[in-house]
């Protein structure tokens, strides 16, 4: 199935080379080399827009054994994928299962990668490769096929969010026939590279979701709250998004963020972000709820983090990573603004923190109660006058 005479290798910017066997597209591509420690979920992982610009190493050795599922659509979203495209620049694995078997499989991982023009290598010593990245930090790399050499390419100096965000406004609603109902809470979802399961979780809680591009002036819309999504790259590249969030904070509009959304909310509040040595990518990252002994196992995919020391007055950490003490969430004393660095929607990964979507709904309810109290006080004041 795979031609042994085909030259295929991963070249890192430090000059080291890792030989492998090509089982994807015969195309050379460059990007930032990162690793993911998850044991399952490669279809969801490869279609996660947060991996844009990266060459992904999967540390679990048996990949491809359950193939790739069908392209089933439900309510405008693919059921078994996190977006409509593969976003990695390339894939590096140890062992590839040529024979796949699963009731929901429609094709092999190899065919799927070739269709999307994504290069991939197996037979690579992923343990040694991952140890190198853990010791030296993430670095640029390139998959070179048939000696078709290309230059290194740094995705961190690009606005990757602009590449993965939607191009136009899209509406999602559990009760689409009644989307103008006053009883259904409306939220604006700022798409920085949103995963499908985030939208599914919001709609399942009877929220009407208006999905807008990363640079859209959402303040002109009629809505109850803002939801900031995950996405790829350096958060500081999203200057327009940060400015819009800052205006929302000034107008005391309820906001909740996930992953990149955590970093964008922090930047809009006046804090700073920094690049992690090798990031957090996997399904078993432990996070502690600040001020308690509760620890949650979370799904994560990020290379940047919020610098807690730069949080302005009124802001404080919400969750912290149990492994390296990096920030995993922030909140404001007002209760109007909250965000987490990990992925409560999972897909793939544990669902331990899906209750945070209910926390978001609770924030909306509390905001509405406060508005009614203020309106009533205003009426009473007018009567007294």
Could you please describe the fold and organization of this structure?
Helices cover 23% and strands 31% of the residues. Helix 6 packs across helix 7 (260-269). The chain has a 10-stranded mixed sheet, with helices on both faces. Strands 2-1-14-4-5-10-13-3 form an 8-stranded mixed sheet. It has a two-stranded parallel ribbon with strand order 6-11. It is α/β, with parallel strands linked by helices and 385 residues long.
Give the topology.
Layout (H helix, E strand, L loop, with lengths): L7 E5 L4 E3 L1 E2 L6 E8 L5 H5 L7 E5 L3 E2 L4 E2 L3 E2 L2 E2 L11 E3 L2 E2 L8 E3 L1 H7 L4 E3 L3 H11 L2 E7 L14 H5 L5 E3 L12 E6 L5 H9 L2 E6 L12 E4 L10 H12 L4 E4 L1 H10 L2 E18 L5 E13 L7 E7 L5 E6 L4 E4 L14 H30 L1
Parallel strand pairs: 4-5, 5-10, 6-11, 10-13, 16-17, 16-18, 18-19, 19-24
Antiparallel strand pairs: 1-2, 1-14, 3-13, 4-14, 7-12, 8-9, 15-17, 20-21, 20-22, 22-23, 23-24
Question: Could you write a compact summary of the structure shown?
Answer:
With 385 residues, this protein is of the alpha/beta class. It is built from eight helices and 24 strands.
Give the amount of beta strand, in percent: 25-35%
Give the count of structural domains.
2
**Rg calculated over all Cα atoms:** 22 Å
Mean pLDDT level: 93
State the CATH topology of the largest domain.
Rossmann fold
Helix content: 10-25%
How far apart are the termini?
A: 85 Å
Provide the CATH architecture of the largest domain. 3-Layer(aba) Sandwich
* Class inferred from helices and paired strands: alpha/beta
Morphology: globular
Major β-sheet strand ordering: 15-17-16-18-19-24-23-22-20-21
Given this structure, which CATH class of the largest domain is correct? Answer: Alpha Beta
Low-confidence stretches: none
The fourth-level CATH homologous superfamily of the largest domain is Class I glutamine amidotransferase (GATase) domain
Report the sheet with the most strands, covering strand number, pairing sense and barrel closure: 10 strands, mixed
How many helical stretches?
8
Q: Can you count the beta strands?
A: 24
The oligomerization state is single chain
């Amino acid at each position: 199935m795979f031609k042994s005479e085909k030259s295929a290798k991963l070249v890192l910017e430090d000059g080291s080379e890792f030989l492998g066997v090509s089982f994807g597209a015969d195309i050379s591509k460059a990007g930032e080399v990162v690793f993911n420690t998850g044991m399952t979920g490669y279809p969801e992982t490869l279609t996660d827009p947060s991996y844009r610009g990266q060459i992904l190493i999967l540390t679990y050795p048996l990949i491809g054994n359950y193939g790739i599922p069908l392209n089933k659509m439900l309510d405008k979203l693919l059921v078994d994928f996190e977006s409509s495209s593969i976003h990695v620049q390339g894939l590096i694995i140890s062992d590839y299962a040529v024979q796949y078997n699963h009731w929901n499989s429609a094709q092999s991982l190899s065919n799927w990668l070739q269709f999307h023009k994504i290069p991939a290598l197996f037979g690579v010593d992923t343990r040694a490769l991952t140890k190198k990245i853990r010791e030296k930090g993430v670095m640029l790399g390139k998959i070179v096929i048939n000696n078709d050499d290309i230059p290194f390419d740094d995705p961190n100096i690009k606005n990757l969010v602009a590449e993965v965000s939607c191009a136009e406004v899209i509406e999602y609603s559990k009760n689409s026939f009644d989307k103008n109902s006053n009883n259904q809470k409306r939220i604006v979802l700022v798409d920085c590279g949103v995963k499908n399961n985030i939208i599914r979780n919001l709609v399942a809680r009877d929220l009407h979701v208006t999905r807008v591009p990363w640079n859209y002036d959402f303040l002109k819309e009629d809505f109850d709250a803002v939801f900031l999504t995950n996405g790829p790259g350096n958060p500081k590249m999203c200057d327009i998004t940060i400015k819009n969030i800052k205006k929302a904070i000034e107008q005391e509009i309820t906001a909740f963020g996930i992953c990149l959304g955590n970093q964008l909310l922090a930047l809009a509040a006046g804090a700073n972000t920094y690049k992690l040595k090798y990031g957090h990518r996997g399904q078993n990252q432990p996070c502690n709820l600040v001020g308690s002994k509760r620890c949650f196992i979370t799904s994560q995919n990020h290379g940047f983090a919020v610098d807690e020391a730069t949080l302005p007055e009124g802001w404080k950490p919400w969750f912290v990573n149990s492994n390296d003490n990096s920030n995993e969430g922030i909140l404001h004393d007002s209760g109007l603004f909250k965000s987490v660095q990990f992925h409560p929607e999972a897909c793939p990964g544990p669902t331990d923190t899906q209750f945070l979507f209910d926390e978001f709904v609770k924030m909306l309810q509390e905001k509405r109660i406060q508005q009614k109290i203020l309106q009533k006080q205003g009426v009473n004041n007018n009567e007294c006058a």
